[in-house]
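2024-03-11 09:14:02 INFO queue: dequeued item EF-hand domain-containing protein, len=201
2024-03-11 09:14:02 INFO validating residues
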Amino acid sequence: FSSTQVLSNMGNKGGKKSRSSTELSDKEIAMLKANTKFSEREIREWHAGFLNDCPNGKLDKKKFIEVYRQFYPQGKADAFCKYAFATFDANNDGTIDFDEFLLAIAATSQGDVNDRLEVAFEMYDASGDGQIDQKELAKMILAMYDLLGETDRKGDRDPKTRAAYIIAELDVGGDKKLNKQEFIAGCKNDPVIQRMLAPNV
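2024-03-11 09:14:37 INFO prediction written
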């Protein structure tokens, strides 16, 4: 059971936690240990750092963008953050709690290539229909350009042109869309495309 599956399934349980969102229960620690490679000590350290930044135990979109801006001072983080935030906010409550945060960290940093490409796919699939179309891909490429401060967007670097090329290269089914399997297999088989779509994998 991969951390990305847990991340995407967490929001389906429904119901709010009755305890304070700033406390870490034994059950939570057990779940996080089972679904990440973090030890209990590391989980508690991450939790302390998370509460330092988010004393109420919730990371909102504004704070999320602030954090990203520190890593990418030369770019505009807002558009990219909208996609990333929606991916990590598994229960769609407009905030990221500690469990969602740590599972997202684990999926993007500890997961194997498939796990990390799965997270990238979910980020690109803005409509949540299990497919990435050319429009979604072009928007995401544009958001990545903004994030990285990339200003050369002409010719084959144009987001729409680049999106059309990627879909033409990876679309095995011929429906001009990418499903998760096509996306993951395509990225693994084409290092150039993987660097474009999932540079940290």
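2024-03-11 09:14:37 INFO annotate: The mean pLDDT is 81.
2024-03-11 09:14:38 INFO item closed
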